[in-house]
């Protein structure tokens, strides 16, 4: 049975809306034959969010026990995921009913490596602000997203917080990039440069706007230009090397790709 893994990097100081996020995942329907797991990885030295998931049997929760940042936290979650597809979901955002049910079949119908539906901004007063899509409904050819970003001052037309991705592709490019900001953009710049995706015109999630958002943090916000420059540099470097998925790679859902075993780290001791 193929599995979709929702991955959430949670952090207690910005988890005020977590109950609504939990309810949105609980309400998801899946295509026939699919299973769901939710990988929750809590960042921070004093984890306190485990109780939010006690009633959800499909949740696999772990805590870092240290503050490692969102990129490292997501990658630790990815290391535990057993799913063939990875749904990104922040702890303050919400999946709309039918989101996974509508997006997952696109991976059977098309040789794509990522898919996304449209999102409304969910404002603090509960209202929703709609944003027009930069691409029509359908296949988004490899490289198109980054060309659009370069033409628009390093602003990407696809919101990376709602992506559904092939796990094998995400791991092949190294997961999320170790940057202090825009780590998801730098990941997606590489992935979308070498693979086709699918842009679904329908609404599948809500992106919550609130003062405690990590993306609003003054500690890293001033670094956004450097981080987005890195993302574009990465895309151009990949283009220069000619790297691309040509359709002959691993497209079937194969659980053996996720089943690896490791033991205690073997270190050389100084005498």
TrEMBL record:
InterPro entries: Glyco_trans_2-like, Nucleotide-diphossugar_trans
The keyword Transferase is assigned to this record: yes
Keywords: Transferase
Superkingdom per UniProt: Bacteria
Ranges for domain Glycosyltransferase 2-like: 5-133
GO terms for MF: transferase activity
Protein name: Glycosyl transferase family 2
Any Pfam family the entry gives: Glycos_transf_2
